[in-house]
Amino acid sequence: MARKNAFYAQSGGVTAVINASAAGVIEAARESKLIGKVYAGRNGIIGALTEDLIDTSKETKGTIAALKHTPGGAFGSCRYKLKSLESNRREYERLIDVFRAHNIGYFFYNGGGDSADTCLKVSQLSETLGYPIQAIHIPKTVDNDLPITDCSPGFGSVAKYTAVSIREAALDVVSMCATSTKVFVMEVMGRHAGWIAAAAGLAQEQEGDAPHIIVFPEIAFNQEKFLKKVQQAVKRYGYCVIAVSEGARYKDGSFLADAGTTDAFGHKQLGGVAPVLAQMIRSELGHKYHWAVPDYLQRSSRHLASATDLEQAYAVGRAAVAFAEQGKNAVMPAILRGKGKKYSWSIGEAPLADVANVEKKMPRHFITRDGFGITDAAREYLLPLIQGEAEMPFKNGLPVHARLKLVPVEKKLRGSFSL
Q1: How far is CA 244 from CA 55, 225, 257, in A?
Q2: pLDDT of residue 259
């Protein structure tokens, strides 16, 4: 059987461990008797549409291994969502032209829910346009909002970063609260799901520990209840530390920090909820405050990555290749949690039809009755995901990252393609 080449691409916001999935794909493909070369798309699916491919076979074994401790997206990512075949047939015909020209029979797309949708559409190409292609989605998202899989690779590391950061910041605040800052607000990612905000709750080990308040997207924001909770914490502990999800919203569904614009996927752009809450506290309660928005820091902090998360990210990359070798199509490797008190996990299989465009939000029993904290059930779910410190090489006091050649594949099609 003649070997077919593979196309791999990264999509959406990157994580501290997405490149570990890339390493898993490339290393497993190099061992495969069915897969030829792995071509990476420069800047995601856009690389396929514009025939801008990277030949990963030009990278050394050591460089590919170094991807496991390199944050960001090694081949470039994008926020670009394919429309339906009916509304934009030219995009799909272009994909087939590029795949055929480069003998590509396997499509590995590493991303979140929107990427699963793209992967599902590509998987249908062989049936609708007569070109054989196996499409496997590789899960990735810091938001932890993919269904079926127990957790999403990338989340465990951002959860660890969040819990550590808010604990350390709280120690700073408590040392100054008698004469200075009384309130600290830390904003974390999570447009619709409060998983990252919930992870901040892991920093709290006993009564009085920070964070004293967590604001979730799943719980309608009530200003009166919120301010009362702040005042209670300041009175009782001398200070108040708050973790808030960027997607915090009012009862009517409007975001506290709606910037009035949308991104390429049609999601509302959010303008920063931490300063909104901080100013609310200052104007209503008069407390001195500080706020922080870790933004890209929380998802690129490879030096503080979870060893569990890294292992899972690498495993789903290798599993994607195994699925392709088994002839599977339109599926996603899913992390399955084992039963029993001791945490264990394995790789299962999820059909993309059940994954695409489905968001997994925080279950209500993971949030305390007052809506401002996490329950023991949430803690039991979250703690295993942040375990272990992923190995990180340093040189001259700085982390060592992979430096790829990113050698382009020679183009075979005439003309250019406009997006």
Answers
A1: 42, 15, 11
A2: 56
pLDDT digits (tens, 9 = 90+) for 275-294: 999 999 999 999 999 999 99
- Among 1.20.120.420, 3.40.50.10810, 3.40.50.450, 2.40.110.10, what is the CATH number of 4-141+305-358+389-399? 3.40.50.450
Distance between CA atoms of 154 and 140, rounded to whole angstroms?
Answer: 6
Distance CA(264)–CA(143), nearest Å, equals 18
Work out the angle between the directed axes of helices 113-123 and 89-101 (0-180°, nearest 10): 70
CA separation for the pair 330, 183 (Å, rounded)? 48
Find the catalytic residue in 52, 114, 143, 150.
Answer: 143
Residue 387's SS3 state is coil
251: number of Cβ within 10 Å: 9
The phi, psi pair for 68, rounded to 5°, reads -65, -20
CA distances from 69 to 12, 317, 402 (A): 20, 15, 8
**Cα 218 to Cα 197: distance, rounded to the nearest angstrom:** 11
Residue 229 contacts residue 168 (beta carbons within 8 Å): no
Tell me the residue type at 81.
K
**Entry pTM:** 0.95
Question: Helices in 32-154 by DSSP H: which ranges?
Answer: 45-49, 61-66, 89-101, 113-123, 125-129
143 given a catalytic annotation: yes
